[in-house]
Each structure stands twice: as C-alpha cells, then as structure tokens.
C-alpha cells in the first residue's frame, strides 16, 4: 500500500528537503519503518519507546492517530499521512500535564 | 529581531489577559519566507491549564492546511505564562518545532504591567531578540482574522 506523507519544516533536513514523500505499509508503524529505511533518523523523531513521540502529531486522512489506534492505525492505498510538530509548552517544567507525572 | 504591528501586540496581550489564569496561545501567519507577521490566529489551549498549553490537534491541522493553501507560514508562535516571567521554560524549549518562527512570550503575572518578549529557539538553544513595534498596517485588518477554532469551543467559552 502506497501512501503520501506530508513532512513538516523541521523534519525536511532529514527528507533531503522533500515536503511530501511516499511510503509503503499497511499500518502507520510500517509506514514509519519504511520511511526510516530511506531517510535515516526519521523514525527516532516520530517514535519513542514504541509509542508516538509527544513532540509530533500524526494524522491519517485528517484524523489524529492518537484517537485511532496510534502506531497501529491502518492505512490503505492513497491515504494521506500528515506529520506536524506538536505546538505545546508552558511554564511548568514538569512536562506535559497529560504525560503521566511520576509524582 | 521581530518587527510586529502594534495592533497585533495589543491583540496578543488582550488574548492572554482574557484567558488568565490559564495560558493563552496562538500564531501569527505571514507570507512564506517574508518573516512578516500579517494574520493573527488565536488558538484553543486544549489543556486549559495555568501551566501548560497545547494547540488542539484538529484545529492545528485545519490551520496548517489553510497556511499551505495560501502559501503562508507560521511567523510567530505566542503563548502566555501566567505566574512566571516571559522566558521560555524547559518545556517550551523541548517542544519548539518551528525553526523559522519567533517565539513570543507574554507574562500576565502582574495585573498592571505586561511583559512581551521574543525568542528564537533552535535545536534547544534560546536567543532573545529585540522587538520593534511598528504602526498597524492600514490595509490589514487583524481583528477579522479567520478563526479555526471549532464552533463548539467558541460556544462553550
């Protein structure tokens, strides 16, 4: 299954400046593995400890994959995958309030 | 250096004051490559928190598609700190994902005075920059900017 992947500005140095790249896979995880095989280092920017990195949002056909199964979200031929930087921050130095503080 | 029209500074401060004590956030778009902030877009803080902000992910996607279609980019990312100084926190630095953007911070901790400062945040390094406030452009109407916030959010507030 071939899908198109839209790459944000901050990751374009990894994709040799490409704004849109194509990739193969039946799940988002497979798509990312395929991308990483050609654009080395991209996987580490998107996935951490087996889960979607908190610094990025990934959408499959405009649906945030955090609500559709994360990395296991299925993709089919012609789907559009969009990667955006999560725009977030704040005065707390303890990380995301949704990130499960250890204290 | 950030050059920004006075009416946009006023609008950002007003947004920050309105959402206090929660953090307020948004962007100013401009023509791609121009480094010129021309269109203010307030965003929903999906966290609705006094210590954290995050753009609502659906709203953000709609915004970025609009920008792409109009050949615009994010020139300014702004947010407020409501109990601390207008300086990027470690969290702000870790998330900073728009290398071309000016990161504007506003502090609303003092009821009678506003701190408005701008930074570049690239690869974890913070550089404060000067802010030059310029007269509002007569041909730009920032008050009538498009609003990508979901209707349900607007009704709730």
Describe this structure in words.
The complex is a heterodimer of chains A (103) and B (157). Chain A has 103 residues and is an alpha+beta fold. Chain A has a single domain, classed as Beta-grasp domain (Ubiquitin-like (UB roll), Roll). Chain A has helices at residues 28-38, 42-46; strands spanning 2-6, 20-24, 47-48, 51-52, 56-60, 63-64, 80-85, 88-89. In chain A, a hairpin with a 2-residue loop joins strand 5 and strand 6 (63-64). The radius of gyration of chain A is 14 Å and the shape is globular. Residues 94-103 of chain A have low confidence and may be disordered. Chain B is α/β, with parallel strands linked by helices and 157 residues long. In chain B, the strands form 2 sheets. A 6-stranded mixed sheet of chain B has the order 3-2-5-6-7-8. A two-stranded parallel sheet of chain B has the order 1-9. The mean pLDDT of chain B is 91.
List keywords for this structure.
heterodimer; A: 103 residues; alpha+beta; Ubiquitin-like (UB roll); five-stranded mixed β-sheet; two-stranded antiparallel sheet; disordered C terminus; B: Cytidine Deaminase, domain 2; six-stranded mixed β-sheet; 4 helices
